[in-house]
Design brief:
The chain has ten helices and four strands. With 390 residues, the protein is an alpha+beta fold. It has a four-stranded antiparallel beta sheet, with no helix packed on it.
Length: 390
């Protein structure tokens, strides 16, 4: 009983080691990808840049020393310290602007992350497709090898001719060629995933495509329009532009300074408070007009992008429905027949010739390969549709 328990445990351990989910691979690559890591550092640096104007500039200090250079004997010393500042609304608006710009950078980084992870998903879907082709090609290779050997024997006993043997040989060569091509394509997929994993090796063991149920179109549109980082980034850009317009208007208001000054001449000392005001007079109208136009531009861009996303989602949704219908048709037809076995029986019974057999076999192979491609295209389209969820 103990041995049986250990055996079952080893089976579960083996399954957990060799079977991965898409999410596990995506999480690993998210941690190791250099572009994603660099993007985080970029956000950190930009946050300091946007926040640097949230507070007034530092105080200004002035000191002057004038020894015996006037009709009055003795030295003259001047000291002044002052602090300039904008109207309070300027700092309130600038703080809000800085937060909006940081939010936009965060959404831009999320777009980058989604681009990387979506590229990985496309590669993984292609990997699954190639592995399925490899599995079916292994069966074809064994079948081609068996039938070729059988016809070599039949040729020796005079039950087959050279043309038939050559046909089986050509079929075997074609299947072997496909096998080499599949191995090469799988190697390319693995190298591309390794590159996206920061150059680190990554053992890939995914059994099948990631299942993602197709939700209703209205629900899909609501979900995407409220969470797609491209849309959210553009919205933040529009909000930041509106806030920038307010900042521009604030800058046209007087700028004040307040400070302390002292002046010493020989034994006399003068000290007191100084107040200053700076009034912008030039180009204020054009500056505000420019900010208004930029704000309108970003507002219109956000609306345009929103409409584009809706149209794109509808088109892709219709394409997926078509692919799904085609996939189900292939599954229904291929699930009800076993052409390879039927053709093999017909060949053994002498109902068809070798030439006819291979013509029908190639046709069946073509149909099955088309089924695998439609299946891959369906899951690739789903990955693109749900990219905003990554």
């Amino acid at each position: 009983m103990k041995t049986k328990t250990i055996f079952i445990s080893l089976l579960f351990l083996s399954a957990s080691v060799f079977s991965q989910s898409f999410d596990e691979i995506l999480n690993t690559i998210e941690e190791n990808n250099k572009d994603i890591q660099a993007g985080k550092k970029y956000i950190e640096s930009k946050s300091y840049e946007y926040k640097k104007d949230n507070l007034p500039e530092g105080p200004k200090l002035t000191y002057g020393y004038f020894p015996d250079n006037s009709s009055v004997p003795g030295t003259r010393e001047v000291f002044e310290v002052s602090q300039s500042f904008q109207m309070p609304y300027y700092y309130i608006n600038h703080k809000a602007y800085a937060n909006l710009m940081i939010n936009q950078e965060e959404y831009n980084h999320l777009i980058l992350k989604q681009d990387v992870l979506n590229e990985v998903k496309i590669l993984l879907n292609e990997y699954v497709y190639l592995m399925k082709k490899t599995a079916i090609n292994d069966k074809r290779l064994k079948f081609a090898d068996d039938i070729h050997n059988a016809y070599l024997i039949r040729l020796e006993v005079g039950d087959a001719n050279a043309l038939e043997v050559n046909k089986t040989k050509l079929h075997l060569m074609q299947v072997k060629k496909e096998e080499k091509l599949l191995k090469s394509e799988l190697l390319i997929i693995k190298e591309n995933i390794k590159k996206l994993n920061g150059g680190n090796d990554l053992d890939i063991s995914v059994d099948d495509y990631q299942e993602q149920p197709l939700i209703e179109l209205d629900s899909l549109l609501f979900e995407r329009l409220s969470s797609d980082p491209e849309l959210l980034s553009q919205q933040k850009a529009a909000e930041a532009s509106n806030r920038q317009l307010k900042i521009t208007k604030n800058l046209q208001l007087p700028k004040f300074s307040l400070g302390y000054s002292s002046e010493t001449i020989v034994n006399e000392r003068f000290k007191g408070v100084i107040v200053g005001v700076s009034i912008p007079l030039w180009s204020s109208k054009r500056t505000i007009q420019k900010a208004k136009i930029e704000s309108e531009y970003f507002d219109l861009s956000a609306i345009s992008l929103n409409e584009s996303k809706v149209a794109e989602t509808r088109i892709r949704y219709d394409q997926i429905l078509t692919l799904k219908e085609n996939l189900e048709n292939y599954q229904s037809v291929l699930g009800s027949v076993n052409s390879q076995e039927l053709l093999n029986v017909s060949l053994k019974n002498g109902e068809i010739s070798v030439i006819e057999f291979f013509i029908e076999m190639f046709y069946y192979y073509e149909i099955y390969d088309e089924y695998l491609m439609v299946e891959r295209d369906y899951y690739q389209a789903l990955s693109e549709l749900y990219k905003y969820r990554l």
